[in-house]
Amino acid sequence: MNHYPHHHNPLDRRSFFKTSLLGGVALALPWSARRVLAAATQPATEPAAGPVSTLGPTSRVALTAGEDRAELAFQALKPFSQQIAAAIGDKRVILKPNNVVIDRPLAASDAKNLEGILEFLKSIGKAGNVVIAESPAGGSVFEGFANYGYDKVGAKYGAKLMDLDKDDFEALYCFDEKDFRPHACRMAKTLLDPNSFVISAAKFKTHDRVAATLSLKNIVVGAAIKRGGGERREGGRWGNSDKPVTHGSGYRGINYNLFTLASRLHPHLAVIDGYEGMEGDGPAGGTPVNSRVCVASPDWLAADRVALELMGIDFAKVGYLNYCAQAGLGQSDLSKIEIVGPALREHIKPYKMARSFDQQMIWMKPVTNA
Fold this sequence. Notes:
Layout: H1 25-28, H2 31-41, E1 59-65, H3 69-77, H4 81-88, E2 92-97, H5 111-123, E3 130-134, H6 141-148, H7 150-157, E4 160-163, E5 169-176, E6 181-188, H8 189-192, E7 196-207, E8 211-213, H9 215-223, H10 243-247, H11 251-262, E9 269-279, E10 287-289, E11 293-297, H12 300-310, H13 319-326, E12 337-340, H14 357-360
Parallel strand pairs: 1-12, 2-3, 2-7, 3-4, 7-9
Antiparallel strand pairs: 1-11, 5-6, 7-8, 9-10, 9-11
Helix pairs in contact: 2-5, 3-5, 5-7, 11-13
């Protein structure tokens, strides 16, 4: 086996988007025990511990490739061991998977990816206060956790399970294309809590509204809560959800909202699973791509940028990430991103885009009065 400040600036209709920024014994041991043994016996290769979120001239992104999904995540995180341990400190770790739907494994974070992350946290002594938390677009979070095996992996590592729809919330504001006004959106306080260390366990997926959904979008849209449980209402809609508010009634709105919310709602650590990604009409209706990689970084924007490159997606076509880059929320320049691992070019596998991709590009055009 392989070794493994929210703020609001009033803007008129014409100027709104203009001003937008944009080893024998070891082999006899179970997987988890071997991971701890390996971590204890191998020399450290990471830099001195420091803050996780730094915007220096260069960001580091780890890339791993292979056939063991849990091992890919574990090894991708290993170069940042000291840095992550220092950043977590005494904070509660929030492990946020991507469960846009609760009954389609291809659309959701895989339990093996979570296992690799949890095993890594155990190896650095930070598995004692971990919560797996989610608010799916529809349905019961715990039903989804059971369907995907999160309950079992959580029990194995002592991680608690949390329904973000039952969390306290804070109202943030989103723009809506229909009326060019701010609208309150209830966001789970756990993901906003300064005492939370948020890990985005995302995956490679194309998207029918914003080209691709990776580590940032997993956090922002997952933070928007729904009340009324997960029961289905008339017309097949799910009860009282604020997730549509984040989508802003259009391609421009959702890109802008993801950007504006990113300053408050972003992962402190991105782990993007590309073992089996989704292409086409994601985030739920696409088809599988066997990329067999994993990307991880404390700089979430750099991680998303590298994931896009591996998916063969032009970064310039992803609105919200371009806005975040222009606002200095992370590193997006590949020439300033140090890849720890194999060369990117060896693992690029172009993904088929959503059918709506051409229409999505309206975000690049100026807004004019009717």
